[in-house]
């Protein structure tokens, strides 16, 4: 089976570094800062949408977003490991899935270069079949294009795929792609948000994946 994972909030608790990068960009450009709790609600749809949501009302224009983005990326590229860590049990679960012969992949709305750097840093000993982040010209999740690309690359039928994510965006992505969904309850969204999308599975710990696959 192919298991596709979201990254932020699913494989990694990265909210503090994402919040810090957001506030660095905001402060550099003279805007009010945001709390980590606010940023928790802003993430999930890529950097540009995160910055749009973080900007004050009336400033959420493409021009203002574009002015913030280089500062966010500059900061995040050098601080993405400051406070980020894999969720407890995640590395062991990934290793166990690999030992059972399953393929692993990553589909993230984080920009592609950071997605690849993050996976290489935190999971250097785990072989992923495909690691994809958001790329120029490619639609962001919940558009199913990223999942469809991974299925094509790995030559996997939809029936042999499970998508694991922690957000409403992830549940919509799985639905749009026509693959089974697994809601990760340890991530950035509360249970009721995920339950509203009636995922095929809800799990409270990474190890629970080993019980349903």
Notes on the protein architecture:
With 213 residues, the protein is an alpha/beta fold. The chain is 46% helix and 16% strand. It has a six-stranded parallel sheet, with helices on both faces. Strands 2-3 form a two-stranded antiparallel ribbon. It has two domains: 140 residues, HAD superfamily/HAD-like (Rossmann fold, 3-Layer(aba) Sandwich), CATH 3.40.50; 65 residues, DNA polymerase, domain 1 (Orthogonal Bundle). The chain contains ten helices and eight strands. The longest helix is centred in the first third of the chain and has 18 residues. Helix 3 crosses helix 4. The mean pLDDT is 97.
Overall shape:
globular
Largest sheet: 6 strands, parallel
The third-level CATH topology of the largest domain is Rossmann fold
Please give the count of helices: 10
Major beta sheet, strand line-up: 5-4-1-6-7-8
State the name of the first-level CATH class of the largest domain. Answer: Alpha Beta
Name the structural class: alpha/beta
How many domains make up the coordinates?
Answer: 2
Relative helix content: 40-55%
CA-CA gap between termini: 8 Å
Rg, please? 17 Å
Q: Give the H and E element order.
A: EEHHHHEHEHEHEHEHEH
CATH architecture descriptor name of the largest domain: 3-Layer(aba) Sandwich
Overall mean pLDDT stands at 97
The portion of residues forming beta strands comes to 15-25%
Under CATH, the homologous superfamily of the largest domain reads HAD superfamily/HAD-like
Number of strands: 8
Uncertain spans: none
């Amino acid at each position: 089976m192919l298991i596709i994972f979201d990254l932020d909030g699913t494989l990694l608790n990265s909210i503090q570094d994402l919040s810090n990068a957001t506030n660095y960009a905001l402060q550099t450009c003279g805007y009010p800062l945001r709390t980590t709790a606010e940023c928790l609600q802003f993430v999930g749809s890529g950097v540009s949408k995160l910055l749009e949501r973080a900007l004050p009302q009336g400033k959420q224009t493409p021009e203002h977003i574009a002015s913030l983005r280089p500062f966010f990326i500059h900061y995040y590229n050098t601080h993405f490991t400051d406070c980020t860590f894999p969720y407890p049990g995640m590395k062991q679960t990934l290793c166990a899935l690999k030992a059972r012969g399953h393929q692993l992949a990553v589909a993230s709305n984080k920009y592609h270069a950071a997605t690849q750097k993050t996976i290489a840093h935190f999971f250097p000993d785990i072989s992923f079949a495909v690691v994809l982040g958001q790329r120029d010209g490619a639609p962001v999740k919940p558009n199913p294009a990223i999942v469809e690309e991974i299925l094509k690359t790995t030559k996997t039928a939809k029936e042999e795929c499970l998508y694991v994510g922690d957000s409403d965006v992830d549940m919509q992505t799985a639905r749009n792609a026509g693959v089974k969904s697994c809601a990760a309850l340890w991530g950035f969204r509360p249970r009721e948000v995920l339950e509203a999308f009636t995922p095929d599975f809800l799990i409270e710990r990474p190890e629970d994946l080993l019980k349903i696959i």
